[in-house]
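I am sending you the entry underneath: sequence plus fold tokens. Let me know what the token row says about the fold:
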Amino acid sequence: MIGRMVNAALAAGSSRRAYDALTTGDRAGRWQRTNHRGEVVTLAQGPAVSVGSLVGVATAPGLTGSVRL
């Protein structure tokens, strides 16, 4: 149980750090677009979720190497 909670925390933290890295500083403008309603939206969630998913699978307890791949 604790291993799963640690895994979830690592995945969520990695996802958040990736999102912050993509949306701060000079890179923030690259990940923004204007939608059909004229509102500015970010495209950074996709890569951030991907990073979190990869970290979650890589650190999941009890998985074999072939299952991780």
